[in-house]
């Protein structure tokens, strides 16, 4: 199921793993595997990638990074195919992503001896990038009656859906708010009128999609195999500065 109606689709550079994710989800449709199992799979893939980075096995690291990105899309696809949406899966996915991002950057810190403060700035930058992209993307989806599994504002604990426990939802939602809340507030402060203003045109959403997690993972993988590991942290710091340009363009529409 597409997250947007045809007229408002754009080329999502961060969603390159979707075709493979659909193949995986279709293969698992009639099995006992659940979306949570797939989420656990991408966590394992991300941890293996980290080990490979620390041991300078960059091609293998790239493979598991891309696999992580594919599985990250496959859990949602499987939930839609099996019609088993859950807040547990959704928040586990997001919490796992931000923790893995921190682990990836720590591994890069270990192999490049980059100043730890630059690592912290890059981490904050990566999260702000992803938050801005998701912010505008969710607004676009809600505006044009696309997929509404995500909310623009994550403020209240949702009620557990059929098949999941409210306790699990409560715990994961609190973790989500703790880890993502500051970034959500920062982006909302910078452009609080976005939900009521004009949405970004498709071409600009395509450009903005380089801020998506999938593309960020792809950049790390490419830079590793191309021998450009020293440029990973500067890349994320520099590209974060363009957040203000994107927001300024959105406000001028």
TrEMBL record:
Belongs to the CDP-alcohol phosphatidyltransferase class-I family. GO terms for molecular function: phosphotransferase activity, for other substituted phosphate groups. This is CDP-alcohol phosphatidyltransferase-like enzyme. The chain crosses the membrane at residues 38-71, 91-111, 117-136, 203-226, 232-249. Keywords: Membrane, Transferase, Transmembrane, Transmembrane helix. GO terms for cellular component: membrane. InterPro entries: CDP-OH_P_trans (IPR000462), CDP-OH_PTrfase_TM_dom (IPR043130), CDP_ALCOHOL_P_TRANSF_CS (IPR048254). One of its GO terms (biological process) is phospholipid biosynthetic process. It comes from Winogradskyella wandonensis.
């Amino acid at each position: 199921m597409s997250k947007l109606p045809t007229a408002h689709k754009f080329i999502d550079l961060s969603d390159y793993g979707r075709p493979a994710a659909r193949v995986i989800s279709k293969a698992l449709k009639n099995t006992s595997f659940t979306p949570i199992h797939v989420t656990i799979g991408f966590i394992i893939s991300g941890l293996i990638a980290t080990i490979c980075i620390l041991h300078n096995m960059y091609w293998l690291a790239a493979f598991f990074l891309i696999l992580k990105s594919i599985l990250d899309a496959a859990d949602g696809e499987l939930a839609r195919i099996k019609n088993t949406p859950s807040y547990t899966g959704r928040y586990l996915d997001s919490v796992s992503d931000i923790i893995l991002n921190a682990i990836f950057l720590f591994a890069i810190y270990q192999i490049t001896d980059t100043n730890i403060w630059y690592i912290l700035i890059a981490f904050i930058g990566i999260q702000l990038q992803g938050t801005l992209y998701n912010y505008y993307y969710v607004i676009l989806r809600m505006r044009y009656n696309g997929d509404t599994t995500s909310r623009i504002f994550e403020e209240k604990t949702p009620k557990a859906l059929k098949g999941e426990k409210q306790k699990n939802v409560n715990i994961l939602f609190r973790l989500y708010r703790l880890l993502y809340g500051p970034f959500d507030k920062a982006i909302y402060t910078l452009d609080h009128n976005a939900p009521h203003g004009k949405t970004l045109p498709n071409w600009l959403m395509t450009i903005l999609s380089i801020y998506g997690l999938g593309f960020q993972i792809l950049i790390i993988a490419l830079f590793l195999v191309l021998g450009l590991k020293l440029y990973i942290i500067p890349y994320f710091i520099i590209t974060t500065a363009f957040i203000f340009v994107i927001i300024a363009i959105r406000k001028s529409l």
